[in-house]
């Protein structure tokens, strides 16, 4: 048996990557980093609990990978650049094989996004992991939920519904094994949209990442900005497999299913042309889905041309 300290030394210390801005990382009572002059520090924590955010029988590689990318998505939603991570890990038992897979997934995600693990905590209890991620943005340039104004256009960074379909309809007999694999990948390895950061810092008035569900998360922008939104439901981008295999549920999965980690953001109408030109130049696809209005609440026009209220729905823990 190895003790807690040997465990940290064996599994976590090797993941420490000493960037120039880290004075010291794992091994002391706290890590020490330098925030570059002219930058703000953004801090965000996300906890993943077994059988709530992932299933206990998932490959530990996927559990670690997903924990990192969902945290990265919060930094992406601030239009910032990720820098450092701490990891609080609670394990029911000491399982070397599990820890090996876990740290392989962790290492892969850290490497892919050039992140440094600088510390954490390791305890015994029901399986859960809590990551705190630190990001940097040029002073006063991080984007919040609260800046949307009437007239702004509402955009999405990608197609929705695939992760929710993986949660709800994976047992559908008509799914090909290839389709199944793509959906599982969408759920376990979502891509955090850090590629939008610069564009959003230049043009967006408000940004959020879609973790709970598009309608619920857009509603967060509306409430924080004290505005409302008119959506064009026909323009909401739905993942091809979702519209193909679940045509009846597709729109609901796209509107209310969570775990997509695409970004929803608002662009002033007079900046839209410049924004689209730059997005095209950067090969970033985006989807116009509606506009911000002064009146609170979410709305859409139905098939008969009647204005209807849209109830924001998404995952709620309580
Ligand atoms: P303390 O007793 O002061 O809380 P610990 O024994 O918990 O210290 O941790 C020792 C060192 O190992 C610290 O630098 C801590 O940040 C690091 N550490 C502990 N657990 C982890 C982990 N899961 N991932 C990364 N670093 C960790
Ligand atoms: Mg500790």
Features:
318 residues, binds magnesium ion, binds adenosine-5'-diphosphate, alpha+beta, 25% strand
How would you summarize this macromolecular structure in one to three sentences?
The chain is an alpha+beta fold and 318 residues long. The protein has helices spanning 4-12, 60-76, 96-112, 162-168, 177-188, 197-203, 214-225, 240-245, 250-256, 272-281, and strands at 22-24, 32-33, 39-49, 81-91, 116-124, 128-138, 153-156, 206-209, 228-231, 263-267, 287-293, 297-301, 307-310.
Please give a structural write-up.
This protein is an alpha+beta fold. The protein is built from 10 helices and 13 strands. The strands form 3 sheets. The chain has a 7-stranded mixed beta sheet with strand order 8-10-7-11-9-12-13, with helices on both faces. It starts with a helix and ends in an 8-residue tail after the last strand. The mean pLDDT is 95. The structure holds adenosine-5'-diphosphate (ADP) and magnesium ion (MG). Adenosine-5'-diphosphate is lined by residues 8, 12, 26-29, 87, 89, 117, 119-122. Adenosine-5'-diphosphate binds next to α1, β4 and β5.
């Amino acid at each position: 048996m190895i003790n807690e300290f040997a465990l940290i030394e064996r599994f976590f210390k090797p993941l420490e990557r000493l960037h120039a801005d880290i004075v010291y990382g794992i091994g002391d009572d706290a890590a020490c980093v330098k925030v570059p002059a002219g930058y703000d520090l953004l801090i965000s924590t996300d906890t993943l609990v077994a059988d709530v955010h992932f299933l206990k029988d998932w490959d530990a590689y996927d559990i670690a990978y997903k924990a990192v990318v969902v945290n990265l998505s919060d930094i992406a939603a601030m239009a910032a650049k990720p820098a450092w991570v701490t990891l609080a890990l609670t394990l029911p038992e000491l399982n070397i094989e599990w820890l090996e897979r876990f740290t392989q997934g962790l290492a892969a995600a850290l490497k892919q996004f050039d992140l440094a693990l600088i510390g954490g905590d390791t305890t015994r209890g029901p399986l859960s992991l809590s990551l705190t991620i630190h990001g940097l943005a040029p002073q006063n340039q991080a984007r919040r939920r609260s800046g949307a104004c009437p007239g702004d256009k509402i955009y999405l960074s990608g197609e929705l519904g695939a992760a929710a379909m993986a949660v709800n309809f994976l047992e559908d007999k008509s799914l090909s094994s290839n389709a199944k694999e793509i959906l599982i990948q969408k759920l376990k390895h979502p891509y955090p949209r850090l590629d939008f950061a610069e564009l959003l810092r230049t043009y967006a008035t408000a940004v959020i990442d879609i973790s709970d569900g598009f309608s619920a998360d857009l509603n967060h922008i509306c409430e924080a900005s004290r505005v409302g939104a008119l959506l064009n439901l026909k323009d909401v981008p739905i993942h091809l497999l979702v519209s193909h295999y679940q045509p009846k549920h597709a729109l609901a999965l796209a509107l209310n299913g969570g775990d997509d980690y695409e970004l929803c953001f608002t662009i002033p109408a007079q900046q839209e042309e410049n924004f689209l030109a730059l997005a095209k130049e950067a090969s970033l696809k985006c989807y116009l889905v509606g506009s911000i209005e002064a009146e609170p609440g979410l709305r859409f026009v139905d098939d008969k041309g009647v204005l209807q209220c849209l109830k924001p729905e998404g995952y709620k823990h309580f």
